[in-house]
Amino acid sequence: MENGRRIAFDYGAVRIGVAMSDLSGLLASPQENFSSQSPELFSEIAIFIDEYQPLYIVVGNPRHLSGVASAKSESVLEFIAGLKQITNVPIYLLDERLTTVSGARELREAGVSSRAAKNHIDAAAAVTILESAMNQERLQGAPAKDLA
């Protein structure tokens, strides 16, 4: 795998969970969430991207368990369109089914109260998305099939 950071976003109507890898692409760590409602959202994300210079960005693609796109999918595509306005970094769309559930379970197992978890669940979901992308990159040479 190429050396460099990778970033994942878990888009939500209130918060956008963020995860970033180490330079080797082995570990994914939660980062500070962005507020989806911020009028400066894309400026803030541009600064973050410029600071860390990722090899690629992965955005979770919300689908129903059946595989059909969810109502949230349209918002995610609008978010990706905004990202494309601020960066030339490749952006991949990755199936995110059950990542929020998985993130919540991991926080619960770590002893984080459900009240405190509210602020961390989106970043935990982004970690799950990024770990999945990095596993796929190791196995198939690319983080996802779908380049956004």
Automatic annotation (TrEMBL):
InterPro entries: RNaseH-like_sf, YqgF, YqgF/RNaseH-like_dom, YqgF/RNaseH-like_dom_sf. It holds the Pfam family RuvX. GO terms for molecular function: hydrolase activity; nuclease activity. GO terms for biological process: rRNA 5'-end processing. GO terms for cellular component: cytosol. Residues 4-103 form the YqgF/RNase H-like domain. This is Unannotated protein. Coiled coil: none annotated. PANTHER family: POLYNUCLEOTIDYL TRANSFERASE, RIBONUCLEASE H-LIKE SUPERFAMILY PROTEIN. NCBIfam families: RNAse_H_YqgF (TIGR00250). Keywords: Cytoplasm, Hydrolase, Nuclease, Ribosome biogenesis.
